[in-house]
From TrEMBL:
Organism (species): Algimonas porphyrae
UniProt name for this protein: Crp/Fnr family transcriptional regulator
Domain Cyclic nucleotide-binding: 17-65
Keyword flag Transcription: yes
UniProt entry keywords in alphabetical sequence: DNA-binding, Transcription, Transcription regulation
Domain annotation HTH crp-type: ranges: 123-201
UniProt-listed Pfam families: cNMP_binding, HTH_Crp_2
């Protein structure tokens, strides 16, 4: 049985949450692990000074709610209406196939976290916004098999404030940098929730991920 089919059979029914609905709160006892079936779920951490740090945007097929010590370190809330499946940690531990899938996903999350840390060390706000779009494009490209030369359309269902809290910027700065990248001809912004990357290599250079030609 393919891993995706096995996961569906073990995780069971999809529960649909409306947009902006909490799934669990930071500090809750971690009893279940979740997977996004459709839509987008955002994870975030409330800091001691009451600021909010977005820690991830989870899309179709991605797990969230992993905890090393029985307590959720982040909160989770839907960005859009989202279908979510879940499994108890006890049941997961007795299923080696799903455990292996989750382990592979955990390594990808480590890579995403390392990428975020690298993004946050960039001094340029333009580089941070460009790196965010590159991350979304690479995530979609791996799933959909886009050709390198083809424009890549990525959804931006999250608010500009959500993006700002993810990148450590202000909402106004995020909006300005998106406009700047559009004026440079690297992206199009057909609407507030969509970005079409027309020059992927150029965007990667702006993000500091490629040497200038």
């Amino acid at each position: 049985m393919p891993l995706s089919s096995h996961a569906d059979s073990i995780l069971g029914a999809v529960r649909v949450y409306p947009d902006k609905t909490p799934i669990y709160h930071q500090g809750d006892t971690a009893m279940r692990i979740f997977r996004v079936n459709s839509g987008v779920v955002m994870t975030f951490r409330l800091l001691e000074d009451s600021r909010r740090q977005i820690t991830g945007f989870c899309t179709e097929g991605e797990f969230f709610g992993l905890s090393p010590d029985g307590e959720y370190k982040d909160g989770a809330v839907t960005v859009t209406s989202a279908g979510v499946q879940s499994i108890s940690i006890a049941a997961l531990e007795s299923d080696p196939v799903l455990s292996a899938k989750l382990l592979a996903h955990s390594w990808r999350k480590v890579e995403d976290t390392q990428s975020l840390m690298m993004t946050l060390t960039k001094t340029s706000s333009e580089a941070r916004v460009a790196a965010f779009l590159v991350m979304l494009a690479e995530r979609r490209g791996r799933r959909d098999g886009h050709e390198d030369s083809a424009p890549i359309q990525v959804g931006l269902p999250m608010s500009r404030l959500d993006i700002a809290d993810y990148l450590g910027l202000s909402r106004e700065t995020v909006s300005r940098r998106l406009t700047d990248l559009q004026e440079l001809g690297l992206i199009d912004l057909p609407d507030i929730h969509t970005a079409c990357i027309t020059q992927f290599d150029g965007l990667r250079r702006r993000a500091g991920l490629m040497a200038a030609a």
